[in-house]
Design brief:
Blueprint: H1 3-7, E1 13-15, H2 24-32, E2 37-39, H3 46-59, E3 64-69, H4 75-84, E4 89-93, H5 98-106, E5 110-115, H6 118-127, E6 131-135, E7 141-142, H7 148-158, E8 163-166, H8 172-180, E9 185-188, H9 190-193, H10 202-210, E10 216-219, E11 226-229, H11 232-239, H12 243-250, H13 253-258, H14 282-289
Helix pairs in contact: 2-3
The structure holds flavin mononucleotide (FMN).
Flavin mononucleotide binds next to strand 3, strand 9 and helix 9.
Amino acid sequence: MQLTKLLHVQKPIIQGAMAQISRPELVIAVSNAGGLGVLTTTGSTPESLQADLKTIRAATKQPFGVNLMLQQTNIDSLLPVLLADPVPVVFTSAGNPAPFLQSLINAGTKVISVIPNVKIAKKMAALGASAVVAEGAESGGHIGTENTMVLVPQVASAVDIPVIAAGGIGTSAGVKAAFALGAAGVQVGTAFLVAKETPIDPIYKQLVIKADDNGTVVTGTGGDRVRSLKTPLTTKLLVTTDSATFSQLSSGSLLRAIHGDVDHGSFMAGEIAGAMTKIRPAKEIIDDLNQGVPTIIED
Ligand SMILES: Cc1cc2nc3c(=O)[nH]c(=O)nc-3n(C[C@H](O)[C@H](O)[C@H](O)COP(=O)(O)O)c2cc1C
């Protein structure tokens, strides 16, 4: 099925949730530009989530999504808000949404799961997810091990629900490539780090712009594998073998990056950072990504 039809959006472009970054200002800008903005709930309380939903609904009539990153410890407290006041789409990531997926669907919310491999994609399809985001390891933030180019076609042939490609997509050529691989749409994170509406320190945006094709590195293992820009912190993390020291250095490091702390921040970003050249309104980023993308795709 066409993603635009499934999500009631004009363009098959999703702004991937970014922890503590994809706040209402960015979500509103993306959804008003015809894409799908996705709100982060990292660090949210039930009250702050309610306030964020109110802010978004006051500023756009367009659909939007909410991310539940299942490593978060606040999921149980946020779920009742999303059940009482349903949103169009919930994106689950980094965990198994089985315990609550059906209750969201019963409330009228579509659930889309971010997955790192074919096995989990099949599991999410069987559980009733409306679509999956096949996220390759080119992505910024927490990543799996398989790359977008190999992951998307294999997931697309393994499941009957729409597959959204993510990881390394930040140009219209990348979007068209994703469709050629069998995707029904794309999820983009890194390219939106340099959106005018993204509430991060200008230093973070400038570091993304300055990065070249070789500008990111992966630190950590298992559930802690994270891709970020090469900075003094990643240099330290790469040589740290003691797990307590690693956790101490990493804890709170994204927030420090958001505040522009170059020495101690984890400036999460994907490999496509090398293609980012300037700060622009989210609408311009979406229009550029969508250039040449077929508007009518056969079901
Ligand atoms: C700074 C940053 C933070 C992210 N945080 C989250 C998150 O909290 N939850 C999530 O599901 N994905 C998160 N992601 C992944 C994005 O939603 C998206 O899938 C990914 O960025 C796509 O790859 P790209 O960075 O190459 O565009 C994050 C990505 C970045 C760059």
